[in-house]
Amino acid sequence: MILLAHILLPFTYILLALLIKKASIKSRLAVLFATFNLLWALALLPIVQFKDIIVVQVGGWAAPYGISLVADRFSVFMLIMTAIVFFLVTIYATQSVDKARRKSGHFFFTFGILMGVNGSFIAGDIFNLYVWYEVMLMSSFILMSLGGERAQMEGSIKYLILNLISALFFVSGVGLLYGNLGTLNMADLSAIISEKSHMLTHLNPALILMVVSFAIKGALVPFFFWLPASYHTPPPAVSALLAGLLTKVGIYSLIRFYTLFLYHDAPFWNQLILWMGVLSMVIGVFAASSQFDFRKILSFHIISQVGYVVIGLGFYTVSGIAAAIFFLAHNMLSKTNAFLVAGWVKRQKGTLNLKTLGEVYKESPVWGVLFFISAFSLAGLPPLSGFIGKYLIIKAGIEANYIVVALIALFVGLFTLFSMVKIWLEVFWKDVPKDRVVKIPEKKRKSQYMLTASIIMAILIVAMGLWAQPIVTYCEQAAVDLLNPELYIDRVLNFSR
Amino acid sequence: MELIIAIFIGLMFSCGVYLILRRSIVKVILGIFVLSNAANLIIFLAGGITKSEVAFIPHGEQTLDPALINDPVAQVLVIKSIVIGLGIAAYILALKYRYFEVTGTHDLDSLKNTDQR
Amino acid sequence: MRNLILEKIAIIYLRAILIVSVWLLLRGHNEPGGGFIAGIIASTGFILYAIVYGSTAVEKTLRYNTRNWIGSGLLIILIAVVLPLIWGKPAMTSIWMTLPDSISSYVHIGTPLLFDIGVYVAVIGIILSIIITIMDVLKWNS
Predict the structure, then answer these.
(1) B23: CATH
(2) I need a surface site. Which of A66, A92, A391, C63 has the fewest CB within 10 A?
(3) Which part of the chain is the Na+/H+ antiporter MnhB subunit-related protein domain (chain C) (predicted)?
(4) What is the spatial distance between Cα B109 and Cα B86, in angstroms, rounded to a whole number?
(5) What is the rounded distance in angstroms from the CA atom of residue A341 to the CA atom of residue A456?
(6) Angle of helix A403-423 relative to helix A385-399, nearest 10 degrees?
């Protein structure tokens, strides 16, 4: 039950939203259930930190035959970050999303995303992982097209088709793997693969299909094209949620797969993943620097930042993986907050084109500071969380003797700073261009909940930078767990109740 | 038998890939459907093709000889992905309909307004 | 589509197919059948009815909105999932009622049946909401 609640809470909200008609009750219930989810995720932390990996065998069927739900330190950390992001975005959305969208089921589908994301963080077998992916994707497809504006339609068709192809790759991989090894439980698979070392090259076709599917979901370099084409089209609350959660699930699965299966054939995978990360980092940041749309710059930055996480994984040392986990968490907060600020600017100014915006700082210094915090956290300025994240990654790179990669990471950080300064100057600082078509300002709309959510997130970003030590220690413990999968395998397969 | 089905899956994949490379959105959608069915067939094939019974324990007995039955897991997986495919088919066709209403075109080449330039 | 023979057939078919689907629902778990298949089969009856009489007539025969059908189906599923926790077993464990000996060999009542009923209701709701939406869009109301 303790893990199943992460699936059943969103499920309960979904069925209540089907039975209840009033939009205002739905919004309140959404905030309530998001709070429950956050509290429950926090309650898992002491168990996994001081006791043991949490394993639930659904229906009481023993491990390789039934469905296992597993949460180790890494999963619980991701669950908590998801819950925080989701909670704050829900508060933000109660005000930011227009009433028509809220009535036609905005929260309904965001809870679908929550269910899928939570499910994929605790899934213990690969087909279950695929099912949670589909739950998450279906909800995100609908959220992306909800409202039916022209740009949204275009964005969602691209998003839909490329993500469906990634789902197909995943199913094909599952089929091949099942045909080869006859099991789907991740712990069991890992145990079988480590026994049959002669089969490694034989399994690579199936695994490569899956890794490509994760790379599409996580927007790694040759597969990222859907992300910048679609993330700037939906309402800002939706793109904040998608940017904060979805690509991270792909990366989570990549880390999980790497530490359970792929490391057996390390010479083949290590370089591949490392250089995929480096390319994502470089290409993402260059593409971002050339854009002139607030949300498009941030979307390209997702690609670049996912690259940082993946090179941390590619080093394959304790400090590398710990840095990757820390960076993942930092990125969820900072990126979501940057999108939240973009949402407020869009609401106030009606556009996000950098060329027509200006002087927003004069209008609202508070939002200016909020953007400053999240953007310069993304760029990696001390004392914000991004500084710690980048420092850890680069330090791990130097320790693992990947000096070139570490230098490239430093260099990319410079360009990140450049494009963040670009947004800062163009949107918040410069004078409004003279030739800009003056629009009659709409009547001032309240935005106190949006502000609250964004402030809380900014405080968390600063706190994560200032009090990083306990979090880094936790991440290192999680990395040690990941690098020694024997414990995971043992706990899942020899589960006794 | 496995060989024939494997070749058939390959054919389906090539048909699907051909279709998703077309310019018309409808053909791309059809390509997705063909590809998803091909992927389902891979799982089906992974269970192995044997001449045997459905995996149900007959009335009044307690156990069953595993040699007599098919692998039920593969079938469960296939039905799950068929159900997911049903939902996706309904959604994707609705999206296509709405897209055609909003823009009045079937052409994928006109879909370049949101791309990075 | 006004046609006397078709109208009569649609009604008879709907009733017959509902009985067949309930039979399939009840024989599931021990024999081929179950909630999903039964739900699909039951909704074919409603679809024929909708083609003949139009979508508003189907909504009237369903009594409740399709959203409520899906919602109550999910609610039944949730109950079936959570119920075993009362007995201190992991969620989704099958719990069977003990029945008198005379009928216990061919009647089994337990949480899997409840789960299947939930799936049945939800599947009917989902399929019909898809079909009704399509018919509304195409203005198929003779």
Answers:
(1) 1.10.287.3510
(2) C63
(3) 6-128
(4) 28
(5) 13
(6) 160
Task: Provide the residue type at A295 as one letter.
Answer: R
Query: Collapsing DSSP states into helix, strand and coil, what is residue A71?
Result: strand
Selected for mutation to probe chain C from A18, A33, A70 (highest C CB count within 10 Å) is: A18
**DSSP state for residue A48 in the 8-state scheme:** I
Q: Cis before residue A383, ω within 30 degrees of 0?
A: yes
User: Could you give the CA distance from residue C31 to residue C38 in angstroms, rounded to a whole number?
Assistant: 13
How many residues would you count in chain C? 142
Give me the torsion for CA of B75, B79, B80, B85, rounded to 10°.
140
**Domain membership flag for residue B62:** no
Q: What backbone phi and psi angles, to 5 degrees, belong to C50?
A: -70, -40
Contact across the interface for C91 and A14, Cβ inside 8 Å: no
Collect all residues of chain C within an 8 Å Cβ-Cβ radius of residue B55.
none
The predicted-structure confidence for A119-148, as pLDDT tens digits, reads as follows 999 998 898 999 999 999 999 999 988 887
Domain-embedded: residue B61: no
Neighbouring C-alpha atoms within 13 Å toward the C-beta of B69: 14
Residue B58 burial (C-beta neighbours within 10 Å; 0-12, 13-18, 19+): exposed
Q: Which residue(s) pair with B69 in the sheet? A: B53
- Show the 3-state SS of A269-309: HHHHHHHHHHHHHHHHHHHHHCCCEHHHHHHHHHHHHHHHH
CA angle, corner C132, sides to C129 and C137, nearest 5? 125
With a CB cutoff of 8 Å and minimum separation 6, the contacts of A386 are A330, A334, A376, A377, A378, A379, A380, A465
Hey, what are A70's tokens?
A: 């597993």
Which range marks the domain in which residue B81 is found?
Answer: 2-50+67-110
Work out how many domains chain A is built from and give that number.
1
Residues 6+ apart with CB under 8 A from A200: A193, A264, A265
Nearest-neighbour CA in chain A from B31: distance (Å)? 10
- Across the interface, whether the CB atoms of B116 and A291 are under 8 A apart is answered yes
pLDDT per position as a tens digit, A332-360 = 999 999 999 999 888 888 778 878 887 78
For the CA atoms of chain A, what is the radius of gyration? 22
Chain B, nearest residue to C40 by Cα: B83
Q: pLDDT 10s digit of each residue in chain B, 117 long?
A: 889 999 999 999 999 999 999 988 899 999 999 999 999 999 888 888 887 777 777 777 778 777 788 888 888 889 888 888 888 888 888 888 888 888 888 888 777 776 655
User: Which backbone phi and psi does A365 adopt, to 5 degrees?
Assistant: -60, -30
- The candidate with the shortest Cα–Cα distance to A122, out of A70, A185, A62, A73, is A70
**CA nearest A206: which of A167, A180, A231, A244?**
A180
3-state helix, strand, coil in chain B (%, to 5): 70, 5, 30
Report the sign of the C-alpha dihedral through residues B28, B31, B37, B38, in that order: negative
Tell me the chain B residues in contact with residue A134 when contact means C-beta distances shorter than 8 Å: 84, 88
The span from the CA of A310 to the CA of A305, in Å, is: 9
Specify the amino acid at residue A60. G
pLDDT in tens, A401-456: 999 999 999 999 888 999 889 888 888 888 877 766 556 555 567 788 889 999 99
Mutation target among B53, B59, B98 for the C interface, most CBs of C within 10 A: B59
Running DSSP on this structure, what letter comes out for residue C138? T
In a domain, B12, yes or no: yes
Residue A186 contacts residue A256 (beta carbons within 8 Å)? yes
Tell me how close the Cα of B64 comes to any Cα of chain A, in angstroms.
17
Whether A439 is in a domain gets the answer no
